[in-house]
Amino acid sequence: MHPRVLPEEYDFAVQCDSCLKWRLIPTKEKYEKIREHNLKHPFVCKQAREWRPSVSCDDPEDISQDGSSIWAIDEPSIAQPPCGWQRLLKIRGEGCSKFADIYYVAPSGKKLRSKVEVKKFLEDHPEYLKDDVNLSRFSFQIPKPLQENYVRKRSYVESEQGGLN
């Protein structure tokens, strides 16, 4: 089986807490803001009027899970990246042992792959510690794929041996 070539661009959608319909979010930044506050202030269709003035729960959903796309769901309350930073998601091919990788890109362009790397980067570059930049603003929590069996499950033998042979 050859891995599927995955797009670099993603659509961002949020499910309405009232009607359960999916609404497309126009920008990654808007999506991240909604995600950060979704536990305290659940998204409802009326909020989409900021970019779609007449949308309501009575309208058809913007996008549906029809099998033509890879769907994943983020944990709610992941903080927006600090100003000037980017949080990137790189989805791996179907059948991999991990669904995706999360990276943060510093304003300097440096790509960071873990909280340990972020901590060291901030220690080495204290100029970035202004503007509420701290470790709590970085989450490497991977979204969960909604397609069953997208990620290859490790067998009992593999987990007992500590990996693949």
Give the C-level CATH assignment. Answer: Alpha Beta
Strand content bin = 15-25%
CATH topology: Methyl-cpg-binding Protein 2, Chain A
Going across the major beta sheet, what is the strand order?
4-5-6
Q: What's the number of domains? A: 1
CATH superfamily: Methyl-cpg-binding Protein 2, Chain A
Oligomer kind:
single chain
Distance separating the two termini: 19 Å
Principal-axes geometry comes out as: globular
| Helical fraction | 10-25%
Q: What does the main sheet amount to?
A: 3 strands, antiparallel
Summarize the helices and strands and which ones pair or pack:
Blueprint: E1 12-15, E2 22-25, H1 28-37, E3 72-73, E4 86-91, E5 100-105, E6 111-112, H2 115-124, E7 144-145, H3 156-161
Antiparallel strand pairs: 1-2, 3-7, 4-5, 5-6
Plain-language structure description:
The chain has 165 residues and is an alpha+beta fold. The protein contains 3 helices and 7 strands; from the N terminus they run E-E-H-E-E-E-E-H-E-H. A hairpin with a 6-residue loop joins strand 1 (12-15) and strand 2. 12% of the residues are buried. Mean pLDDT is 83; it is low at 1-7 and 156-165.
Name some characteristics of this structure.
165 residues; 3 helices; 16% helix; three-stranded antiparallel beta sheet; disordered N terminus; 7 strands; alpha+beta; two-stranded antiparallel ribbon; Methyl-cpg-binding Protein 2, Chain A
